[in-house]
Amino acid sequence: MLERAQPRGRERPTLERTTDAILAPLYYRAVFTNEPLTSGWAYDLVSHLLSDENGAATAPDSASDSLLAD
């Protein structure tokens, strides 16, 4: 996705921005809440990080699948 975005003038997110947008929420949810880590939620985190002024794409059909099994 990042390589396809470069010809359109999009820049790669920095490590700090990626950590703030993806790793921090994942860690927080896993350690401090009882909320499930779903693929749809993770997809939304990545979409928000990589979104442009036109908004993000819709989540895949498997969005309700849990990333972590109980």
Task: Write up what this structure looks like.
By secondary structure, the protein is mainly α. Helices cover 49% and strands 0% of the residues. The chain has helices spanning 2-5, 15-32, 39-50. The longest helix has 18 residues, at 15-32. It is elongated and about 40 Å long. Residues 53-64 have low confidence and may be disordered.
Index terms:
3 helices
Secondary structure topology:
Blueprint lengths: L1 H4 L9 H18 L6 H12 L20
Helix pairs in contact: 2-3
Order of helices and strands: HHH
Per DSSP, the total helix count is: 3
Question: What is the average per-residue confidence, as pLDDT, rounded to a whole number?
Answer: 77
Task: List the uncertain runs.
Answer: 53-64
User: What's the overall geometry?
Assistant: elongated
Separation, N- and C-terminal Cα atoms: 31 Å
Helix content: 40-55%
Briefly, what is this?
The protein is mainly α. It is 49% helix and 0% strand.
